[in-house]
Amino acid sequence: MFEQIYKCLAEEISSGNEAVLLTFMKPVNNKKGSISNKILLSKDNLDNNQIFNSMSEEIRQKILLAFDSGNLQLVDNPDETILIEPYFPKPRLVILGGGHIAKPLAEFGAKVGFSVVVVDDRPTFANPSRFPEASKVICDSFENCFTRLDIKKSDFIVIVTRGHRHDGICLRNTLNYSPAYIGMIGSKRRVKAMKEELLNEGYSKDLIDSVNAPIGLDIGAVTPEEIAISIIAQVISYRRTKGNILNRDPNTKFNWPEYDESVIEEMSKETEFPRALVTIISSKGSVPRKAGAKMIVWMDGRVIGSIGGGCSEASIITIARSTILNKEYRIERVDMTGNVAEDEGMVCGGIIDVLIESF
User: Contact at 8 Å (CB) between 91 and 16?
Assistant: First the structure.
């Protein structure tokens, strides 16, 4: 049940589209009930979507807020609760240049949740064995690679080529798009000269000033690894705190939605084995995973994904197996504050609410 919905969701995400998944719940009480329906809406065709236009103003505004903020939304009515989950494509870190800074940058980028693409025109630098963490390595000229990159608004572009001429080619091509972040390496003198060239060529000052150059946060970095850390820290700051660069409401705090691709992929598969989908729907305080994190639980104890691990996750797994048997949904609270958490050795001190759906 609903496998086709999750299959369509996976296709929307892989195509680079933003979407929301609405889950309609019929409560028996404030902790449990049944799932009545799920609806998937893509942001691209929202204005012309008859289903969206037929919804109440309250629900439409919550959907728009989910897109603008990246946060899950709940609509509570006496006879129905609606969970609105935003899904955005996995942010892509495009590294133009495969030299000594690109190697640790690719590693760090992959570790903090980016899909990494590396481009260089030298086969000895642009190969998968040099960048095992990258999802794609392109060996092509910097002039031609952009036709293969298909730059999107959700992309983060880092220019770290081996020379001023190559940097200029990459920057001029990148400025034809509107990615979430543009950064270019170089000394203050070199960067100043590049900006003057672009101004003389007719590029607007605002557009040029949007480029982070010299790249990275000023932490006094010296080694390639330190420079890579300064770059990825700046990229993360754009990803987490500067959602207005993605044409969102600048007055709304933005958070890139958290979800597990492996969970969505598994939910799109038809299976005869019953399972439960566990989703963190709200979090408060210091918790290991935030709202949107998911895992799947089977009756035999197998799991995919995680909502944080430890004793709290173990207790939810037990409840999930009971939920499967009763063919219902449940909402459970995990309190990781106070003496109980200390006795269990939990390092966190927050609260999460989780939705457990049986399938």
Answer: no
Give all strands (DSSP E) within the chain, no chain letters. 19-27, 32-42, 73-77, 80-87, 92-96, 115-120, 136-139, 155-159, 181-184, 275-284, 294-298, 303-305, 329-335, 351-358
* Rounded Cα gap, residues 24 and 237, in angstroms: 34
Q: How far apart are CA 1 and CA 23, in angstroms?
A: 13
pLDDT tens readout for residues 273-331: 999 999 999 998 888 888 999 999 999 989 999 998 887 788 999 999 999 999 999 99
Q: Would you say 256 and 88 are in contact if contact means Cβ atoms under 8 Å apart?
A: yes
Helix (H, G, I), strand (E, B) or coil at 297: strand
Q: How far is CA 149 from the centre of its chain?
A: 19
**Residue type at position 122:** R
Rounded to whole angstroms, what are the CA distances from 332 to 30, 35, 38, 288, 336? 10, 16, 21, 17, 13
* Alpha-carbon span 173 to 183, nearest angstrom: 13
Model confidence at 159: pLDDT above 90: yes
Q: Which pLDDT tens digit goes with each residue over 114-145? A: 999 999 999 999 999 999 999 999 999 999 99
Chain-wide mean pLDDT for the chain?
Answer: 90
- The candidate with the shortest Cα–Cα distance to 292, out of 336, 237, 354, is 354
Highest mean pLDDT among 20-29, 40-49, 311-320, 331-340: 20-29
Q: How far is CA 337 from CA 93, 317, 319, 347, 351, in A?
A: 36, 20, 20, 10, 7
Residues 177, 183, 187, 193, Cα dihedral to 10°? 20
pLDDT in the model for residue 282: 92
Find residue 22's DSSP bridge partners: 39, 84
Is the pLDDT at 342 greater than 60, yes or no?
no
Virtual torsion, Cα 262, 264, 269, 274, nearest 10 deg: 90
The verdict on pTM exceeding 0.70 is yes
CA distance 323 to 82: 19
Counting every residue, how long is the chain?
359
